[in-house]
Design a protein that fits this description.
single chain; alpha+beta; three-stranded antiparallel sheet; 2 helices; about 15% strand; globular
């Protein structure tokens, strides 16, 4: 079976913007759950875990569509 990968665009729950400022992890490192992302429009900051939690409905719908 082929690996299937889909990207879900995360949105700011405050303003709906899809662009975030963040520091890129060092080479060979991954984002951690406490990594900060800041909305490019309204300036609200989220941890990676909170941003994923706030977008859980969109993520779940995308996973459901793939099933």
């Amino acid at each position: 079976m082929d690996d299937l990968s889909v990207q879900v665009t995360l949105t700011c729950p405050t303003c709906g913007c899809t662009e975030f400022a963040y520091e890129t992890p060092a080479s060979g490192r991954d984002f951690t759950d406490d990594w900060l992302f800041t909305c490019a429009h309204c300036g609200r900051a989220f941890t990676r875990a909170k941003l994923i939690e706030e977008n859980a409905e969109s993520i779940d719908m995308t996973v459901g569509d793939m099933a």
